[in-house]
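Quick entry between incubations.
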Amino acid sequence: MKKYLNYIDGEWSESSSSKFVEILNPANGEVLGEVTQSTKEDVDRAVQAAKRAQKEWRLVPAPERAEFLYKVAFLLKERKEEIAQVLTSEMGKVIDEARGEVQEAIDMAFYMAGEGRRLFGDTVPSELRNKFAMSVRIPVGVAGLITPWNFPIAIASWKSFPALVTGNAVVWKPATETPIVAFEFAKIYEEAGLPKGLLNLVNGSGSVVGDAMVEHPDIDLISFTGSNEVGSAINARAGQLLKRTSLEMGGKNAVIVLADADLNLAVDGILWGAFGTSGQRCTATSRIIVHQDVKEELEQRLVQRIGELSLGDGTDESVKVGPVINRSSLEKIHEYVKIGQQEGAKLLAGGSIVTDNGLERGNFYAPTIFTNVTPEMRIAKEEIFGPVLSIISVKSLEEAIEVNNGVEFGLSSSIFTADVNLAFQAMRDLDTGIVYVNAGTTGAEIHLPFGGTKGTGNGHRDSGVAALDVYTEWKSIYIDYSGKLQRAQIDNY
Ligand code: UN1
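Done. Structure below.
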């Protein structure tokens, strides 16, 4: 059986724990290999290697650091199909989406490589004569990256490229469910010739490897994407240790459909947003907030179209919805469906674990729609992370915005309307980090900030120029060439 190892200080190595965990294909339960389970000592070795490597790396000019990212970008481009196939078999998303995800990593590589020739700071006039003032970005040191299984390469790219181009070294713990994609990514870094110790891959559980990273005194920041439960525990401990954290967590994203909306377009956007990646995106559409005048019409069209979503192994090009990641996720989704029924919501479609057509060996859940959902119901408030959609009816845009904003998360939202005035009102008032007009809640592009308000995060953003803020400190520099002591705020007044 193929064994997946750690990549520490430029070497592939097995953990001293000698423990391995099986990697399963979520579409059929096939064992794809097994992955080493690391210890605290492995983390320490990775951190020491990172620390050593970063000492030299910070002195490498940023455009030269960026050269490695360009190489990574071209290698990713070359292997796009191969990695996409691995991604689908390991994580389950359908092959088209897997290709899209690898493309997201390619885009991010080129974009962040470009930053090697920007990394803009400010030059500003000094308030004193013969004095120069500027600010520059400096690396934080060793960045600890903890990434999820739902976007195993895109999110690792959102974090590792800006970390490296700004002069940091990386210790990376990928999700236990997706070590093969992590292996492929680390191999590409290796092939690109990235100096050893700058990118260290440490496989293992959150409770051992993740905790050791948070606790390690030589890891200067943690960038995490995952659940609120884990994120807030990381933040609490990192807070005590005065360690920087960037957290990207849950969502409860809504599509608002106003009475004047193009319903065909709205249905396309909703189905893609809710059932793409089997609803396992942070940005997935999990609520529809519809104007009462078009509620029935929208429901009819959704129910009609939901039948077209063929389920199956995502490597089959004709399949539209793949499996969910594992058994416990499948059960959690089904639990929520039962909760919805108990709460009095009406099931319009789906609502069951799929066991027919040979799909019983995989983790398949039928695309599910509830209607007559009210904002207080748990299915309208909690993140389900599966193909379950709740329809809530409202009487006005104002009420729609109130419902949208009435949850503890604030990642993405969307509005379908033909009225430009209402669209702008929504853009202003929707309390989410990402807003779409006449498109669903998914589909963020890498050159804009990705992240959310309230319980979704802690004010930081992945991707875009904003990502640089996570991986750099500001240094303000004053150069006095007057040859005399000039006291700021005193000698100029
Ligand atoms: C995620 O679900 O965590 O906007 C990332 C999107 C993708 C990224 C999603 N580009 O849906």
